[in-house]
Design brief:
The N and C termini lie close together (11 Å). 81% of the residues lie in helices and 0% in strands. The protein is mostly helical.
Length: 79
């Protein structure tokens, strides 16, 4: 594998890993916000459960898997 392709592969793996971290962070934030809305009876949206946290975590899992595959592919081409 050529050096520019290797650098692009590593950059994509790091970017996907950062996106996975961001999605886990936003999923936790969405769960926290939903728990506060659920505990206060007068707030709008307090009667339904917000599935945004689960969606963020699913995206984070896929981004993490993609980052891991790219990183392993880069390592295997170097070694």
């Amino acid at each position: 594998m050529t050096a520019p392709l290797l650098q692009a592969c590593w950059a994509a793996a790091v970017t996907l890993a950062l996106y996975a971290f961001y999605c886990y962070w936003e999923g936790s934030r969405a769960d926290l916000a939903a728990s506060f809305r659920h505990s206060v009876p007068g707030l709008p949206g307090s009667t339904r459960i917000d599935p945004a946290g689960a969606g963020y975590r699913a995206r984070a899992r896929w981004a993490g898997v993609g980052a891991l595959i790219l990183a392993l592919w880069c390592l295997s081409s170097v070694l």
